Amino acid sequence: MSKLPAPPADGFCAQAWEHTAGLQQAIVEHPFNTGLADGSLDREVFAFYIVQDARYLVGFAQALAAASTRADNAEDAAFLSGSANGALVEERRLHAGYVSEFGLTEAEIDGIGTSPSCLAYTSYLRACALTEPYPVLLAAILPCFWVYQHVGTTILESTGDLAEHPYRAWIQTYADDEFAAAVLTARELVDRVAASADDATRQRMLAAFTRATEYEWLFWNSAWTKEAWPTAEFLG
Ligand SMILES: Cc1ncc(C[n+]2csc(CCO)c2C)c(N)n1
C-alpha cells in the first residue's frame, strides 16, 4: 500500500499533521524505526517492544471502547468498537507469539514490568476517555492509527521485497490496504467531529493529537533504550 491521500486541506487532520510534521519526521527517522526498516534492529529490543505493545493495546482498546459509547450514530460506534476488538485480537496474537517466537514463558512475561512510557501513554488515553469531550478523545486516539500507517508505508517504500526481511510481519500489518482503509475512516470521523466543534474544543483536539503523537515517539524510544523504572533499585 502506498501513502494515504492528503486529508482535506481545510480540515482538522491537515492542520494537525502540519503542526506535528517535524515530530512525524523524527518518528520515521528514529533509530528503532530505521533498524526495523533495514532489518538490523536487535531481536531483544524488538521483543521488549512487542511485550510493551501488547500492554499498550489493552489500554488503547479501552479508550476505543469508551469512545464507541459516546458516538452519536451506529456507524461510528461500530467502527470504534470494531477497532477496540481488533486491538484486543492483536494483543492475543502477540501474546501467543511471545512463547513461540521469543521463547518467553508466562511467568517471564508476568515478570516484565510495564515501562514508564507505556504506562504514561495508556494512562493518558484512559484519562482522555474519562475526562475529555468526545472530539478531544477521538483526537487523542487518531495518532495510533495514522502514525503507524505513515511509519509502515514509509518503511515498505524503503525495503521493497520483504521475502527475506526479519520484520516482514510487522511491516505488512501496518502497510496493509485494509489497515489504510481503517485509518481513512478514523481521519474522516475526526474531521467531521472537528467541523462541528467550537474553537476552544478544536484547540484541545490539537493539543491531544500532539500529545498522543509525542507519546508515539516516546514509545519507540522507550523500546530502543529498554526503558525501566529508575526507582526499581530501591524496591529490591
Ligand atoms: C504504541 C502503538 N501505537 C499504535 C499502534 C497501532 N495500532 C494499535 S491498535 C490499532 C487499531 C485498532 O485495531 C493500531 C493502528 C500500536 N500497535 N502500538
Q: What secondary-structure arrangement, pairings included, does this model have?
A:
Elements: H1 12-19, H2 21-28, H3 31-38, H4 43-70, H5 74-102, H6 106-111, H7 116-131, H8 134-159, H9 168-174, H10 177-195, H11 199-224
Helix pairs in contact: 1-11, 2-11, 3-8, 4-5, 4-7, 4-8, 4-11, 7-11, 8-9, 8-10, 8-11
The structure holds the ligand Cc1ncc(C[n+]2csc(CCO)c2C)c(N)n1.
The ligand Cc1ncc(C[n+]2csc(CCO)c2C)c(N)n1 is lined by residues 53, 56-57, 60, 83, 86-87, 90, 144-145, 148, 216, 219.
Domain Thiaminase-2/PQQC: 22-225
Pfam families: TENA_THI-4
InterPro entries: Haem_Oase-like_multi-hlx, Thiaminase-2/PQQC, Thiaminase_II, Thiamine_Salvage_TenA
Describe this protein's structure.
The protein has 236 residues and is mostly helical. The protein has a single domain, classed as Heme oxygenase-like (Heme Oxygenase, Chain A), CATH 1.20.910.10. Helix content is 77%, strand content 0%. The chain is built from 11 helices and no strands. The termini are far apart. The mean pLDDT is 94. Bound molecules: the ligand Cc1ncc(C[n+]2csc(CCO)c2C)c(N)n1. The site of ligand VIB has 13 residues, from helix 4, helix 5, helix 8 and helix 11. It is an enzyme of class 3 (hydrolase). Its EC number is 3.5.99.2. Belongs to the TenA family.
Tally of structural domains: 1
Low-pLDDT runs of 5+ residues are none
Got a strand count?
0
Instruction: Give the terminus-to-terminus CA distance.
Output: 49 Å
Shape: globular
How would you summarize what this structure contains?
It is built from eleven helices and no strands.
